[in-house]
Specification:
The strands form 2 sheets. Strands 1-4 form a two-stranded antiparallel ribbon. It has a single domain, classed as Alpha-Beta Plaits, CATH 3.30.70. It is an alpha+beta fold. The model has no long low-confidence stretch (mean pLDDT about 95). A hairpin with a 2-residue loop joins strand 2 and strand 3.
């Protein structure tokens, strides 16, 4: 599963809508990834979609 580095997240929301597993949601003013839903997009995409769309490098990282 992946996680979002809260201190780097700009709360743009791009990742929430790109996640094919609906694993990303807003909690207490920032986005979080539900590890029980995150599959790292294996079998669906070449790399995790949160990583692909995030405008800030190294914000969506392996947990």
């Amino acid at each position: 599963a992946y996680k979002i580095v809260t201190s780097q997240c700009t709360v743009c929301g791009a990742c929430e809508f790109e996640c094919p597993n609906a694993a990303i949601s807003m909690k207490r003013g920032t986005y979080v990834i539900d590890a029980t839903k995150c599959t790292e997009c294996e079998g669906q995409f070449d790399k995790p979609q949160c990583v692909s769309v995030c405008p800030v490098d190294n914000t969506c990282v392996p947990a």
